[in-house]
Amino acid sequence: MSEKSLSELAEALTDFCNALESLAVNLRRQIQALTKTEAKATIPEERFNILKWQDEKGERLGDYQVAYRNHSLPENWDHAFKILKANSSLIANRFHEPNYVYAYWIYPDKYPDRIFRKKLEEAKG
């Protein structure tokens, strides 16, 4: 097998594993909602913190941050994006787990190359 073929295979396997992880988290959340138990899958915030974040300021949002795909390692950015997409993490339904510092969301149709975050205590205000 050529080095290019191995690289493509490794990338495909990584994408497959990332998708499986996102689907498992989403499935656990749906099961929790159905059974109304406290069991919940958690994703460490480090999965998002490893991205390169840039400070932004908006009239309506105030201070927030953006991670651009071309400024982070593609495999890290893609994994985080897939987690947010699998959890329907739009601005009205921001993703966060207990003990997260930030809430995360995407605009997959308008900005498919960006992930957004805002500090939770600020997001509640």
What is this entry, summarized?
The chain is of the alpha+beta class and 125 residues long.
Account of the protein in words:
- There is one protein chain.
- This protein is an alpha+beta fold.
- The chain has one domain.
- The chain is built from four helices and four strands; from the N terminus they run ααββαββα.
- The chain has helices spanning 3-35, 46-49, 74-86, 120-123, and strands at 54-58, 62-68, 102-107, 111-119.
- A four-stranded antiparallel sheet has the order 1-2-4-3.
- A hairpin with a 3-residue loop joins strand 3 and strand 4.
- The radius of gyration is 16 Å and the shape is globular.
- The model has no long low-confidence stretch (mean pLDDT 88).
Write the layout of secondary structure elements.
Elements: H1 3-35, H2 46-49, E1 54-58, E2 62-68, H3 74-86, E3 102-107, E4 111-119, H4 120-123
Antiparallel strand pairs: 1-2, 2-4, 3-4
Helix pairs in contact: 1-3
What key phrases describe this protein's structure?
alpha+beta; four-stranded antiparallel beta sheet; globular
